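Input.
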Amino acid sequence: MKIAIIGALGFVGKHLAQTFAEQGHKVVGVGTHNQSILDRRYVCHDASTFYADSKKHKNTFDVVVNLAARRSSKLAPLSNETVFEYTFEIPKALIMFAAKQNALVLNVSTYIQNFKGINGETVDSYGAAKQEMSRFLSEYSRLHPVNTVDLYLFTIYGQGDRPSHLVPSLVSAAVTGDPIKLSEGFQLINLLNIEDLTMNISSILNWSNFDNYRRFYMWDDNYLTVRDLVKTLERITQKEIFCEWGARDYAGHEMFDPWPIPMERFPQFKIDVTLESGLTKLWDDVRTL
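Output.
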C-alpha cells in the first residue's frame, strides 16, 4: 500500500513510518518542518514540498494517517487560531489532497485532551479542533468514496518518547536521583506501549469492516494514578524517585474518575507489552547507555 503519514516527525509518527516501511508499504511522511529524510526507505516532506509534487502525491494514497496536532500549554502558550490551523485546517487540506478513491483515512486523537466523555464538551482548543476534524471526516466519508477510522488514544509511552513526557521524566529521575516536580498525582492515566500501538494500527490495514466512518478507542480498562506509576517504577528500578508532589498545578484536562466512553474499543485490540515489561525495557535501555 501507499501510505501518507501527516505528522511523521512525531513520536508516534516515526514509529508508524518505520513499522509500515518494514512491512513493505511505500511510506511518505508530511510534516510542518523542513524536508527531512527519516530512513533510507522513506522520506518526510514539508507541506509545500508535498503539494509541489502533485503527480506523485495528489489523490494517490491508499491510506492517509493523520497525527497532526498542536496544543497550547502554560509553558508554551499558543493562540486558538494557531491550534486550529495545525490541528484542523492543515491536515484537513492534506487529507483531501492525498487520499485516492476508496482510501482509508486513520485519524488519531488523544482522548483525555479531547472531551470529558461527553460529545461536544471539549476540554480546550485542541479538543475543539479535533472535534471539528471528526465532524469533517464523518461528513466527508459520507459524501465521498473514502472510509475513515477515528482512533482515540490515552497515553502512549516507549522508546523514542519526548524526554519531557511523564514516563521518560520519571525514568530520568530514577537514574539521576534528582527531584522531579509533579502535580498532586491523583489523576487517572492509562498507558499503552508504542509497540502495541503500532501493532494495533497495523491490524486496521487488513480489516474489512469499514462503513464510511467509524470510531474506536484503544486502551484497556486498567487505570492507575500517577502515584501508582511512580510506585511501580520504583519497584522495577529499586530506586527511590524523589517526587515534589503538588509542585505543579494540574493541567486542567485530567480524569479523576473514569469518564464514560461514547464509542467502542477497536474489536481486534490486544496488548502484548505489559506495563511491567514495558517499563523494565525502558529502564534496561537507560542503564546500558
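The chain has a mean pLDDT of 91.
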